[in-house]
Design goal:
- By secondary structure, the chain is of the alpha+beta class.
- The protein contains 7 helices and 10 strands.
- It folds into 3 domains: 143 residues, Endonuclease/exonuclease/phosphatase (Deoxyribonuclease I, Chain A), CATH 3.60.10; 109 residues, no CATH class; 48 residues, no CATH class.
- A hairpin with a 5-residue loop joins β7 and β8.
- It starts with a strand and ends in a 24-residue tail after the last helix.
Amino acid sequence: MNIFSVYALQAGGTDEAKEQFWAALQEKLEKVDESERCIIGGEMNGHVGSDNDAISRIRGGNAYGNGDEDGEKVIDLALSFDMVIGNTLFRKRNEHLIAYESGDRASQIDFLLYRRRNIRKIKNCKVIPGDHVTEQHRLVVIDLTIAVSQKQKRKLQLREGENDRILRELSHDRVDVNTWWNDAKSITLRAGKEIFGESSGKVWENKEIWWFNEEVQGKMSAKKKAKKNGKKVNKMKTEQHINSVARELRKQLPSQKNYRYLRGNEESNDQEIAEITREEVNAELEKIKNGKAPGPDDIPVEVWKALGEEGVDMFRWIDKRDTGKQYQKNAIFKEKGYIQSCENY
Protein backbone atom coordinates (compact mmCIF):
# COMPACT_ATOMS: atom_id res chain seq x y z
CA MET A 1 0.00 0.00 0.00
CA ASN A 2 1.45 3.36 -1.08
CA ILE A 3 -0.06 6.52 0.47
CA PHE A 4 0.72 10.01 -0.81
CA SER A 5 -0.24 13.09 1.22
CA VAL A 6 -0.18 16.16 -1.03
CA TYR A 7 -0.74 19.90 -0.85
CA ALA A 8 -1.12 21.74 -4.14
CA LEU A 9 -0.44 25.43 -4.62
CA GLN A 10 -3.39 27.77 -4.22
CA ALA A 11 -4.99 29.78 -6.98
CA GLY A 12 -2.63 32.71 -6.33
CA GLY A 13 0.48 30.67 -7.14
CA THR A 14 2.41 31.07 -10.39
CA ASP A 15 1.76 28.71 -13.29
CA GLU A 16 5.41 27.65 -13.29
CA ALA A 17 5.30 26.63 -9.60
CA LYS A 18 2.08 24.70 -10.17
CA GLU A 19 3.59 22.82 -13.12
CA GLN A 20 6.62 21.91 -10.99
CA PHE A 21 4.36 20.51 -8.26
CA TRP A 22 2.31 18.29 -10.57
CA ALA A 23 5.44 17.14 -12.43
CA ALA A 24 7.13 16.18 -9.15
CA LEU A 25 4.04 14.27 -7.99
CA GLN A 26 3.79 12.46 -11.32
CA GLU A 27 7.47 11.48 -11.08
CA LYS A 28 6.88 9.93 -7.64
CA LEU A 29 3.81 8.02 -8.84
CA GLU A 30 5.68 6.58 -11.82
CA LYS A 31 8.00 4.78 -9.39
CA VAL A 32 5.07 2.85 -7.88
CA ASP A 33 4.43 -0.52 -9.48
CA GLU A 34 1.04 -0.77 -11.19
CA SER A 35 0.22 -3.94 -9.25
CA GLU A 36 0.50 -2.13 -5.90
CA ARG A 37 -2.35 -0.30 -4.23
CA CYS A 38 -2.04 3.48 -4.14
CA ILE A 39 -3.93 6.29 -2.40
CA ILE A 40 -3.42 10.01 -3.07
CA GLY A 41 -5.06 12.38 -0.63
CA GLY A 42 -4.80 16.01 0.37
CA GLU A 43 -5.67 19.59 -0.46
CA MET A 44 -5.41 19.82 -4.24
CA ASN A 45 -6.89 23.32 -4.53
CA GLY A 46 -8.95 22.57 -7.62
CA HIS A 47 -12.62 22.06 -8.51
CA VAL A 48 -13.29 18.95 -10.61
CA GLY A 49 -16.99 19.81 -11.08
CA SER A 50 -19.79 17.46 -12.07
CA ASP A 51 -20.72 18.75 -15.53
CA ASN A 52 -18.31 16.83 -17.75
CA ASP A 53 -19.49 13.40 -18.91
CA ALA A 54 -16.24 12.76 -20.78
CA ILE A 55 -14.39 12.01 -17.56
CA SER A 56 -16.99 9.72 -16.01
CA ARG A 57 -14.34 6.98 -16.03
CA ILE A 58 -12.47 8.56 -13.14
CA ARG A 59 -15.19 10.67 -11.53
CA GLY A 60 -18.58 9.62 -10.28
CA GLY A 61 -20.43 12.81 -11.17
CA ASN A 62 -21.35 13.65 -7.59
CA ALA A 63 -18.89 16.49 -7.04
CA TYR A 64 -19.80 19.84 -5.52
CA GLY A 65 -19.75 23.00 -7.64
CA ASN A 66 -18.33 23.66 -11.10
CA GLY A 67 -14.93 22.71 -12.42
CA ASP A 68 -12.01 25.07 -13.03
CA GLU A 69 -8.53 25.04 -14.59
CA ASP A 70 -6.81 23.79 -11.42
CA GLY A 71 -9.37 20.99 -11.18
CA GLU A 72 -8.32 19.88 -14.68
CA LYS A 73 -4.88 19.10 -13.20
CA VAL A 74 -6.48 16.73 -10.72
CA ILE A 75 -8.48 15.08 -13.50
CA ASP A 76 -5.39 14.75 -15.75
CA LEU A 77 -3.50 13.09 -12.90
CA ALA A 78 -6.31 10.60 -12.31
CA LEU A 79 -6.54 9.80 -16.03
CA SER A 80 -2.77 9.34 -16.37
CA PHE A 81 -2.61 6.72 -13.62
CA ASP A 82 -6.11 5.23 -14.07
CA MET A 83 -7.42 6.35 -10.68
CA VAL A 84 -10.85 7.40 -9.45
CA ILE A 85 -11.71 10.41 -7.31
CA GLY A 86 -13.27 8.72 -4.29
CA ASN A 87 -15.36 11.57 -2.89
CA THR A 88 -17.24 12.00 -6.18
CA LEU A 89 -18.44 8.39 -6.47
CA PHE A 90 -21.27 8.46 -3.93
CA ARG A 91 -24.40 10.60 -3.93
CA LYS A 92 -24.25 12.72 -0.77
CA ARG A 93 -25.82 15.80 0.71
CA ASN A 94 -23.77 18.95 0.22
CA GLU A 95 -22.63 18.90 3.84
CA HIS A 96 -20.91 15.58 3.12
CA LEU A 97 -19.23 16.95 -0.02
CA ILE A 98 -18.01 20.38 1.08
CA ALA A 99 -14.45 20.01 2.35
CA TYR A 100 -13.60 23.72 2.70
CA GLU A 101 -15.78 26.45 4.18
CA SER A 102 -14.84 30.01 5.07
CA GLY A 103 -17.56 32.57 5.64
CA ASP A 104 -19.93 32.46 2.65
CA ARG A 105 -17.45 30.46 0.56
CA ALA A 106 -17.81 26.70 0.31
CA SER A 107 -15.98 24.37 -2.04
CA GLN A 108 -14.67 20.86 -2.60
CA ILE A 109 -10.90 21.08 -2.98
CA ASP A 110 -9.75 18.11 -0.85
CA PHE A 111 -9.79 14.77 -2.65
CA LEU A 112 -8.91 11.11 -2.22
CA LEU A 113 -7.77 9.18 -5.31
CA TYR A 114 -7.61 5.37 -5.55
CA ARG A 115 -6.77 2.77 -8.21
CA ARG A 116 -9.70 2.33 -10.57
CA ARG A 117 -9.25 -1.43 -10.85
CA ASN A 118 -9.86 -1.60 -7.06
CA ILE A 119 -12.99 0.55 -7.23
CA ARG A 120 -15.15 -2.25 -5.79
CA LYS A 121 -13.07 -2.10 -2.61
CA ILE A 122 -14.29 1.47 -1.95
CA LYS A 123 -17.34 1.17 0.31
CA ASN A 124 -17.83 4.84 1.11
CA CYS A 125 -16.12 8.23 0.87
CA LYS A 126 -17.44 11.42 2.40
CA VAL A 127 -16.75 14.52 4.45
CA ILE A 128 -17.50 14.44 8.18
CA PRO A 129 -19.04 17.85 8.93
CA GLY A 130 -18.36 17.86 12.66
CA ASP A 131 -14.62 17.09 12.42
CA HIS A 132 -12.23 19.80 11.27
CA VAL A 133 -8.63 19.15 10.30
CA THR A 134 -7.92 22.88 10.46
CA GLU A 135 -10.13 25.88 11.10
CA GLN A 136 -11.69 25.79 7.61
CA HIS A 137 -10.96 22.27 6.32
CA ARG A 138 -13.19 19.32 7.16
CA LEU A 139 -12.13 15.70 7.47
CA VAL A 140 -12.47 13.55 4.34
CA VAL A 141 -12.63 9.79 5.01
CA ILE A 142 -12.67 6.74 2.74
CA ASP A 143 -13.79 3.23 3.71
CA LEU A 144 -11.84 0.47 1.97
CA THR A 145 -11.91 -3.31 2.09
CA ILE A 146 -8.35 -4.61 2.19
CA ALA A 147 -7.58 -8.30 2.47
CA VAL A 148 -4.74 -8.96 4.89
CA SER A 149 -2.89 -12.24 4.40
CA GLN A 150 -1.80 -13.96 7.60
CA LYS A 151 1.78 -15.03 7.93
CA GLN A 152 2.12 -18.78 7.80
CA LYS A 153 3.49 -20.18 11.02
CA ARG A 154 6.52 -22.39 10.78
CA LYS A 155 5.68 -26.05 11.24
CA LEU A 156 8.02 -28.00 13.49
CA GLN A 157 9.29 -31.13 11.78
CA LEU A 158 12.19 -33.32 12.88
CA ARG A 159 14.63 -34.79 10.39
CA GLU A 160 14.85 -38.54 9.97
CA GLY A 161 16.69 -40.11 12.87
CA GLU A 162 16.49 -37.03 15.13
CA ASN A 163 13.28 -38.25 16.72
CA ASP A 164 14.82 -41.58 17.81
CA ARG A 165 17.94 -39.89 19.17
CA ILE A 166 15.97 -37.47 21.34
CA LEU A 167 13.68 -40.25 22.59
CA ARG A 168 16.67 -42.35 23.65
CA GLU A 169 17.98 -39.45 25.70
CA LEU A 170 14.58 -38.73 27.25
CA SER A 171 14.02 -42.38 28.12
CA HIS A 172 17.27 -42.65 30.09
CA ASP A 173 16.97 -43.30 33.85
CA ARG A 174 13.30 -42.45 34.51
CA VAL A 175 13.33 -42.49 38.30
CA ASP A 176 12.13 -39.22 39.78
CA VAL A 177 9.55 -37.07 37.98
CA ASN A 178 11.05 -33.68 38.87
CA THR A 179 14.59 -34.74 37.99
CA TRP A 180 13.45 -36.28 34.72
CA TRP A 181 11.45 -33.17 33.81
CA ASN A 182 14.46 -30.87 34.33
CA ASP A 183 16.62 -33.22 32.25
CA ALA A 184 13.93 -33.33 29.55
CA LYS A 185 13.90 -29.53 29.42
CA SER A 186 17.68 -29.34 28.92
CA ILE A 187 17.68 -32.12 26.28
CA THR A 188 14.76 -30.63 24.33
CA LEU A 189 16.09 -27.07 24.27
CA ARG A 190 19.57 -28.22 23.29
CA ALA A 191 18.19 -30.40 20.49
CA GLY A 192 16.00 -27.54 19.28
CA LYS A 193 18.99 -25.20 18.97
CA GLU A 194 21.05 -27.83 17.19
CA ILE A 195 18.37 -28.80 14.67
CA PHE A 196 16.43 -25.58 14.05
CA GLY A 197 18.91 -22.93 15.12
CA GLU A 198 18.36 -19.92 17.36
CA SER A 199 17.26 -16.38 16.56
CA SER A 200 19.58 -13.51 17.37
CA GLY A 201 16.98 -11.85 19.59
CA LYS A 202 17.92 -8.49 18.14
CA VAL A 203 15.34 -5.76 18.64
CA TRP A 204 14.90 -3.51 15.63
CA GLU A 205 14.50 0.06 16.80
CA ASN A 206 12.41 2.71 15.06
CA LYS A 207 10.41 0.08 13.17
CA GLU A 208 6.70 0.90 13.21
CA ILE A 209 7.15 2.78 16.52
CA TRP A 210 8.53 6.08 15.20
CA TRP A 211 5.35 7.84 16.32
CA PHE A 212 5.69 6.63 19.93
CA ASN A 213 7.71 9.67 21.05
CA GLU A 214 8.08 11.26 24.49
CA GLU A 215 5.00 13.44 24.03
CA VAL A 216 2.77 10.45 23.20
CA GLN A 217 4.25 8.41 26.04
CA GLY A 218 3.64 11.27 28.50
CA LYS A 219 -0.01 11.59 27.53
CA MET A 220 -0.56 7.84 27.75
CA SER A 221 1.07 7.77 31.17
CA ALA A 222 -1.19 10.59 32.38
CA LYS A 223 -4.24 8.74 31.07
CA LYS A 224 -3.24 5.54 32.88
CA LYS A 225 -2.73 7.43 36.15
CA ALA A 226 -6.15 9.06 35.88
CA LYS A 227 -7.75 5.69 35.17
CA LYS A 228 -5.91 4.09 38.08
CA ASN A 229 -7.02 6.81 40.49
CA GLY A 230 -10.62 6.31 39.38
CA LYS A 231 -10.39 2.56 40.01
CA LYS A 232 -9.16 3.08 43.58
CA VAL A 233 -12.47 4.65 44.52
CA ASN A 234 -14.40 1.44 43.80
CA LYS A 235 -11.66 -1.00 44.78
CA MET A 236 -12.95 -1.61 48.32
CA LYS A 237 -16.52 -2.22 47.14
CA THR A 238 -15.30 -4.55 44.38
CA GLU A 239 -13.25 -6.63 46.81
CA GLN A 240 -16.23 -6.96 49.15
CA HIS A 241 -18.41 -8.23 46.28
CA ILE A 242 -15.73 -10.70 45.17
CA ASN A 243 -15.28 -12.04 48.69
CA SER A 244 -19.01 -12.50 49.15
CA VAL A 245 -19.36 -14.39 45.87
CA ALA A 246 -16.31 -16.51 46.71
CA ARG A 247 -17.87 -17.50 50.03
CA GLU A 248 -21.04 -18.60 48.25
CA LEU A 249 -19.03 -20.64 45.77
CA ARG A 250 -17.00 -22.33 48.51
CA LYS A 251 -20.23 -23.51 50.11
CA GLN A 252 -21.05 -25.33 46.89
CA LEU A 253 -17.63 -27.01 46.72
CA PRO A 254 -16.92 -30.31 48.51
CA SER A 255 -15.22 -30.13 51.86
CA GLN A 256 -12.75 -32.98 51.20
CA LYS A 257 -9.34 -31.79 50.02
CA ASN A 258 -8.73 -34.89 47.96
CA TYR A 259 -12.22 -35.11 46.47
CA ARG A 260 -12.11 -36.92 43.11
CA TYR A 261 -14.62 -38.28 40.61
CA LEU A 262 -14.93 -41.59 38.82
CA ARG A 263 -14.96 -41.26 35.03
CA GLY A 264 -18.49 -41.43 33.67
CA ASN A 265 -20.46 -40.44 36.78
CA GLU A 266 -20.65 -37.79 39.48
CA GLU A 267 -20.29 -40.00 42.56
CA SER A 268 -17.53 -39.17 45.01
CA ASN A 269 -14.62 -41.59 45.10
CA ASP A 270 -11.94 -41.73 47.77
CA GLN A 271 -10.10 -44.51 45.93
CA GLU A 272 -7.83 -44.39 42.91
CA ILE A 273 -9.31 -43.31 39.62
CA ALA A 274 -8.67 -44.80 36.18
CA GLU A 275 -5.41 -44.00 34.42
CA ILE A 276 -5.31 -41.34 31.73
CA THR A 277 -5.71 -43.02 28.36
CA ARG A 278 -3.80 -42.45 25.13
CA GLU A 279 -6.93 -41.07 23.50
CA GLU A 280 -7.31 -38.44 26.20
CA VAL A 281 -3.69 -37.26 25.86
CA ASN A 282 -3.91 -37.12 22.05
CA ALA A 283 -7.20 -35.23 22.24
CA GLU A 284 -5.70 -32.60 24.55
CA LEU A 285 -2.60 -32.20 22.36
CA GLU A 286 -4.80 -31.60 19.31
CA LYS A 287 -6.69 -28.87 21.17
CA ILE A 288 -3.52 -26.89 21.89
CA LYS A 289 -2.65 -24.54 19.01
CA ASN A 290 0.87 -24.30 17.60
CA GLY A 291 2.93 -21.16 18.02
CA LYS A 292 1.81 -20.49 21.58
CA ALA A 293 4.20 -19.38 24.32
CA PRO A 294 5.59 -22.31 26.34
CA GLY A 295 5.09 -22.73 30.07
CA PRO A 296 7.67 -22.47 32.87
CA ASP A 297 9.63 -25.43 31.43
CA ASP A 298 10.19 -23.52 28.12
CA ILE A 299 9.26 -26.62 26.10
CA PRO A 300 6.86 -25.71 23.25
CA VAL A 301 3.87 -27.94 22.59
CA GLU A 302 5.18 -28.66 19.08
CA VAL A 303 7.91 -30.80 20.66
CA TRP A 304 5.41 -33.13 22.29
CA LYS A 305 3.40 -33.35 19.10
CA ALA A 306 6.56 -34.21 17.14
CA LEU A 307 7.48 -36.99 19.60
CA GLY A 308 4.30 -38.85 18.66
CA GLU A 309 3.20 -41.92 20.62
CA GLU A 310 6.48 -42.03 22.56
CA GLY A 311 5.70 -38.56 23.90
CA VAL A 312 2.24 -39.75 24.92
CA ASP A 313 3.86 -42.60 26.85
CA MET A 314 6.00 -40.07 28.72
CA PHE A 315 2.95 -38.08 29.73
CA ARG A 316 1.22 -41.19 31.03
CA TRP A 317 4.40 -42.21 32.91
CA ILE A 318 4.48 -38.80 34.62
CA ASP A 319 0.81 -39.09 35.57
CA LYS A 320 1.35 -42.47 37.21
CA ARG A 321 4.13 -41.08 39.40
CA ASP A 322 2.40 -37.80 40.16
CA THR A 323 -0.35 -39.42 42.25
CA GLY A 324 -0.94 -38.92 45.95
CA LYS A 325 -0.84 -35.14 45.84
CA GLN A 326 -3.68 -33.27 47.46
CA TYR A 327 -5.54 -30.51 45.65
CA GLN A 328 -8.03 -27.86 46.71
CA LYS A 329 -10.49 -25.93 44.57
CA ASN A 330 -10.75 -22.15 44.96
CA ALA A 331 -12.84 -19.47 43.27
CA ILE A 332 -10.80 -16.93 41.25
CA PHE A 333 -12.44 -13.88 39.67
CA LYS A 334 -11.59 -13.49 35.94
CA GLU A 335 -11.36 -9.67 36.29
CA LYS A 336 -14.10 -9.17 33.71
CA GLY A 337 -17.85 -9.40 33.58
CA TYR A 338 -20.38 -9.02 36.40
CA ILE A 339 -18.66 -9.81 39.70
CA GLN A 340 -21.79 -11.33 41.26
CA SER A 341 -22.18 -13.90 38.47
CA CYS A 342 -20.70 -17.32 39.28
CA GLU A 343 -19.90 -17.86 35.60
CA ASN A 344 -17.15 -15.20 35.84
CA TYR A 345 -15.11 -17.26 38.34
